[in-house]
Design brief:
heterodimer, A: about 525 residues, alpha/beta, Glutaredoxin, Ubiquitin-like (UB roll), 4 domains, 5-stranded mixed β-sheet, about 40% helix, globular, B: about 170 residues, alpha+beta, 2 domains, 4-stranded mixed β-sheet, 4 strands, about 45% helix
Chain lengths: ~525, ~170
């Protein structure tokens, strides 16, 4: 009997040797005369176990990891194909606590199916949302998105339904309807990889979400702006678009409805700022990625001056679930004004790094300690940066923060795109503050002065602080610069660079040559 | 791609560039895609190519120069046969990326962005989306995680061997 094995083909698994494991398996099987079928799924997002090899058994899939190519002969000797015990055996995949304790809606199929298997996608509930949308009016689709409470997953957390309605209400152009849907897949924040994981593991979901957005807003053309650092994601998404076109789910007669929706992938070119929506639109128009002053907002005048819906990958990928299972189903996850699930990403110095999709409201401690298992180095936890390079640092005293938009904001931070970068006690927070300015210097688009010059002066002041020169004056200068950048920058690049700087300074003053923060604070 | 087999920049003739632009419909909004294709073909974006592209797309030379110089991806000079890009963003820093980068540079007596005597061009990159498997980097475009100094040097040696075999 042919045994089916699953091994991720995504770039994270490949980066730690999955392709070598695949080659070893096929070689070894050939020389032993074993019949096996190797299927390449996306990664489950349990990265510390990658490469994660699964074998299909009558009792479900059994996981082994992290598997190296050298482990393959031994695994086969000890009954891999029967799902037998082995030091690398993790038991049934679905029973691994890290996975079992999640609430996977958006990531439900990632790692379960082959990314380009449309039949497998449908068998696991795919296309139900788009089919439902085809039976609704645009206004009804927008209502569902509004009722679900979905907010933008890119970082700002703006209510998606309001944005969708604004685009829907804009008049079509003289040519009868040039509105656009643009998916922001310029996932440049350090500590985030959920967009990549989704696109490489379940690209049809994003395409389905985009098609629904097209139907809802009256846009006939969509773009996915995907960063060049993700070549495998670009390739998978392009192939997935071809499959969807051939199946009639994209193109001139979407699902037999007579409606048009085309989709195109555009590569970024290594500019972090293009994750800012107006810089992304400039880049999509073929120009330097400099930010635009607002108003007008993109929903009114966006790409090529036309009404444009700009949403993050995970915002759009949440929509098929909302349409398929109802707004109330989605809204029942989460708390307060943070509804649904968030893809938390555990990164940096953490023992079990990976993707944790949970309803909003889970505590930071549960994520870092229960899921993450603490630091990878085994040293004491000192800080975590939430929401990317423009997000705040938090310390041990903030670990009980509930991870929803409002609670994180109340703790002085930003939930952002859900990235959590963990640092142990060897981190020098003054150096991290210096880096925040340096990053802003490198990635500023240069359009506004507070960001362009402030970053340079801030870095210089931090260097003097690190060199123990003129501490009081330079600390005052940093605080003043931060105030100016926060108030005077055109976009979040300069406006939020003070977040990591000031949070580091407030929570870890001893690293900046000041007296330690009072324990009560 | 950046290796000996690549088309030397100076001899990239006008016809090739025009064909490249034509494949993108001479559309100005596709300038970034055109520059990506050019870099894949020539290993970098040669200055001499910019006026030809500007004319094909009906753009000013300054505009094309502006785009080519804005984006970090576009290399204005050829790189060595092996290009190593190491992530120095926060998540990789938390796993010791800066020490890894310093060691790779020190060993070669080169600075970031330079091509060392051994033919390795070492560049910084800010996030490869492999943040749970840091330090991360690419060697000739291939992504690697859990990098240490020894593994990096082994991957560099393999990349040179691959280049030689081509």
């Amino acid at each position: 009997m042919t045994v089916t094995l699953w091994l991720p083909g995504d770039s994270a698994a490949a980066s730690v040797g999955a392709d070598a494991v695949a080659a070893a398996l096929l070689n070894e099987a050939a020389s032993r005369g074993l019949e096996l079928r190797l299927r390449r799924n996306g990664s489950r997002g349990l990265f510390w176990l990658e490469p994660l090899l699964e074998v299909e058994t009558p009792a479900g899939r059994i996981a082994y990891g992290p598997v190296a190519a050298d482990d393959v002969p031994g695994l086969l000797d000890r009954g891999l194909l029967e799902g037998a015990g082995h030091p690398l055996c993790q038991g049934p995949t679905e029973e691994i606590p890290y996975l079992k304790d999640q609430e996977r809606l958006t990531f439900a199929r990632v790692g379960v199916i082959e990314p380009l298997d449309l039949a497998g996608y449908e068998a696991q509930g795919g296309l139900a949302g788009l089919r439902r949308a085809l039976a609704l009016t645009p206004a009804e689709i927008v209502d569902a998105v509004t009722d679900s409470g979905l907010r933008g997953r890119g970082g700002a957390g703006f209510p998606a339904g309001i944005k969708w309605r604004t685009v829907l209400e804009q008049p079509a152009g003289p040519d009868g309807g040039s509105k656009y849907v643009c998916c922001n897949a310029d996932e440049g924040d350090s500590g985030t990889f959920a967009d990549r994981l989704l696109i490489e593991g379940d690209p049809f979901l994003l395409i389905e979400g985009l098609a629904i957005a097209g139907l809802a807003t009256g846009a006939g053309q969509g773009f996915v702006y995907l960063r060049s650092e993700y070549p495998r994601a670009i390739e998978v998404l392009k192939r997935a678009i071809c499959v969807m076109e051939q199946a009639g789910w994209l193109g001139d007669d979407l699902g037999g409805s007579g409606r048009t929706f085309r989709l195109e992938v555009r590569r970024g070119a290594g500019a972090y700022i293009c994750g800012e929506e107006s810089a992304m639109l400039e880049s999509l128009e073929g120009r330097r990625g400099t930010v635009r002053a607002k108003p007008p907002i993109p929903a009114v005048a966006g790409l090529f001056g036309r009404p444009t819906l700009v949403n993050n990958v995970l915002t759009l990928a949440a929509v098929p679930t909302i349409l398929a299972r109802g707004a109330a189903f989605y809204r029942d996850f989460g708390q307060g004004r943070s509804r649904g699930t968030q893809a938390f990403q555990l990164a940096g110095n953490v023992r079990r790094g990976g993707l944790v999709e949970k309803a909003f409201g889970v505590s930071l401690r549960a994520l870092i300690e229960d899921f993450g298992g603490g630091t990878a180095s085994g040293r004491p936890f000192r800080a975590a940066q939430l929401g990317g390079p423009l997000g705040a640092y938090v310390g041990a005293a903030q670990l009980d923060t509930a991870m929803d938009y409002e609670s994180v904001a109340a703790a002085g931070g930003l939930l952002g795109h859900g990235g959590i970068v963990v640092f142990d006690d060897t981190v020098d927070m003054a150096r991290m503050a210096r880096f925040a300015f340096e990053f802003c210097e490198i990635e500023s688009c240069g359009k506004c002065t507070p960001c362009r010059i402030g970053a340079v002066r801030g870095k210089e002041a931090l260097e003097r602080i690190l060199g123990d020169r003129d501490l009081a004056r330079n600390l005052a200068l940093v605080e003043e610069l931060c105030e100016l950048m926060a108030d005077g920058s055109l976009c979040a690049m300069g406006g939020l660079t003070p977040m990591p700087v000031l949070s580091a300074l407030r929570l870890f003053p001893e690293d900046f040559g000041r007296a330690p923060a009072a324990a009560a604070e | 791609m950046q290796a000996d087999g690549a088309t030397p920049a100076d001899s990239l003739d006008t016809a090739v560039l025009r064909a490249l632009c034509a494949r993108h419909g001479d559309a100005p909004e596709r300038l970034i895609e055109i520059l990506h294709d050019l870099q894949e073909l020539a290993g970098h974006v040669p200055e001499a190519a910019l006026p030809v592209i500007a004319e094909a797309l009906n753009l000013g030379r300054a505009e094309v120069h502006g785009v080519a110089s804005f984006y970090h991806d576009f290399r204005r000079a050829p790189a060595g046969p092996v290009v190593v890009r190491l992530c120095r963003a926060e998540a990789c820093q938390a796993r010791g990326a800066l020490a890894l980068i310093d060691e790779a540079l020190e060993q070669r007596g080169a600075a970031l962005g330079e091509t060392a005597a051994d033919g390795v061009t070492l560049e910084a990159v800010y996030c490869l989306g492999n943040c749970a498997l840091g330090p991360a980097g690419t060697v000739n475009g291939r992504l690697h995680g859990r990098l240490g100094a020894d593994r990096l040097e082994r991957l560099v040696a393999e990349a040179f061997a691959e280049e030689e075999a081509r």
